[in-house]
Amino acid sequence: MKRIMERPPSCGLTRVVAVDGPAGSGKTTFAGRLGPALGAQVVHSDDFPVPWEQGPGPWFAELEARVLRPLGEGRPGAFRRYDWARGVYAEEVSVPVAPVLVIEGVGTARRTAPVSFRVWVEAPRDVRMARVLERDGPELEPRWVEWFAAEDRWFAEDGTRRRADAVLDFS
Questions:
Q1: Residue 15: is it exposed, middle or buried by C-beta count within 10 angstroms (0-12/13-18/19+)?
Q2: For residue 137, what are the contacts with CB-CB under 8 A and spacing of at least 6?
Q3: How would you list the strands of the sheet with 100-104, edge to edge?
Q4: Nearby residues of 80 by Cβ (< 8 Å), 6 or more positions away
Q5: Confidence of residue 14 (pLDDT cuts 50, 70, 90)
Q6: How many CA atoms lie within 13 A of 101 on its CB side?
Q7: For residue 15, pLDDT beyond 90
Q8: Which of 52, 30, 3, 32 minimizes the C-alpha distance to 120?
Q9: CA-CA distance, 80 to 170, in Å (whole number)?
Q10: Residue of 4, 24, 48, 2 whose CA lies nearest to 132
Q11: How far is it, in rounded angstroms, from Cα 113 to Cα 107?
Q12: Which of 25, 80, 94, 115 would staple 121 via disulfide (CB 3.0–4.6 Å)?
């Protein structure tokens, strides 16, 4: 945490900490601990609609427009949380200007993100697949196979792991 707080703000007055890595690696669990330890709000990629067929790239535009751009201008951000179970937008979530904001999900530590500190979370592919299938159901395995391939391409092109300030293995 000291390493994070020593970094200068990256988005207006806010230090943005990105917790990135492939699906099922433990990002959400880690961010759920990191946010409270830093006294920071956590915004998850799962709060936004992320279409299977588009991969990890496009969803970030909404986070950027509704949260990161306003924070960069010194204003609070806000977005409507996406309810995956119902397939609709739910309540509005306010994101105040604060010393730290944690963003979590595939693609949050992308090269173009205004991030102070990047955390890469990883686990072996078979462990990750078992986790997502246990969480989401075995009927989604074909979708997850597609998604894992899209992530592999995304991370190779973006070079995300190479730029990480911290690498965590949650095997």
A1: buried
A2: none
A3: 41-44, 100-104, 15-20, 117-122, 166-169
A4: 89, 90, 91, 92, 93
A5: very high
A6: 28
A7: yes
A8: 30
A9: 30
A10: 24
A11: 9
A12: 25
Using a 10 angstrom Cβ sphere, with 0-12 exposed, 13-18 middle and 19 or more buried, the burial of residue 110 is buried
Q: DSSP states of the chain as a string? A: -HHHHTSPPSBTTBEEEEEE-STTSSHHHHHHHHHHHHT-EEEEGGGS---GGGTTSTTHHHHIIIIIHHHHTTS-EEEEEEETTTTEEEEEEEE---SEEEEESTTTT-TTS--SEEEEEE--HHHHHHHHHHHH-GGGHHHHHHHHHHHHHHHHHHTTGGG-SEEEE--
For strands 117-122 and 166-169, give the pairing. Answer: parallel
Tokens of 139: 């009927």
pLDDT given at position 97: 98
| Average pLDDT score over the chain | 96
Q: Specify the pLDDT at position 36.
A: 98
Q: Model's pTM, two decimal places?
A: 0.95
